Amino acid sequence: MIPTNALKNGGGSCDFTIEVIGEGMAVAAPDRTHITLGVVTEGKDVQPAQKENAEKIEAIIAALERLGVPRENIQTKTYSIEPQYDYADGVQTFRGYKVTHLLGITLDGVAGAGAVIDAAVAQGANAITDIVFLSSESAKFEALALREAVRSAQEKAAAIAGALGVSLSAIPCKVQELGQEAAPIRFKTAALSMADSQTPIEPGQLTFRAAVRVWYVFA
């Protein structure tokens, strides 16, 4: 990990120090969902494949709006038209075109993810590439994890100083935040069950982690 946000006090020396690393963690229930899904169509000619794709995407968007998803929460993530080839005995033969249109769908909350997937599949979605659960208060929980990391470093330094029979400076002479971030909860297509009943999606919990390296002068 790369140290960032180094802080130093204005005076004193770090020549004789106790160096510790503190780690902290905060757990939060996700309250936002981002789903990436769409349609992949193929055809010998590009226009029919493109037309079929557009019709299915329009039907998916309409179905999502009927579920109450605002139009501004639906946006194109990927759109591509690619030629496809077969290869046999070293010979390349043109097979047709593949049209891919993926939508990014943002939901307030986590309960509607399964219904969105089922509605999209019913209208022709055949590519569900990512489901991510997030927190709208990530900054708050990152700060909580960072405070816990600093407390952990203080406790470690105090324990070491006590064992050595020395006293620590009241304020560290140097603090570095070690780069860590919350890992969003992701689900991939292979983990989803496209059954007739609503697709079960469990959001779980988000874990925010922080770490600091701290130097205390001792005497």
UniProtKB/TrEMBL annotation:
<dbReference type="InterPro" id="IPR007497">
    <property type="entry name" value="SIMPL/DUF541"/>
</dbReference>
<protein>
    <submittedName>
        <fullName>SIMPL domain-containing protein</fullName>
    </submittedName>
</protein>
<dbReference type="InterPro" id="IPR052022">
    <property type="entry name" value="26kDa_periplasmic_antigen"/>
</dbReference>
<dbReference type="Pfam" id="PF04402">
    <property type="entry name" value="SIMPL"/>
</dbReference>
<dbReference type="GO" id="GO:0006974">
    <property type="term" value="P:DNA damage response"/>
</dbReference>
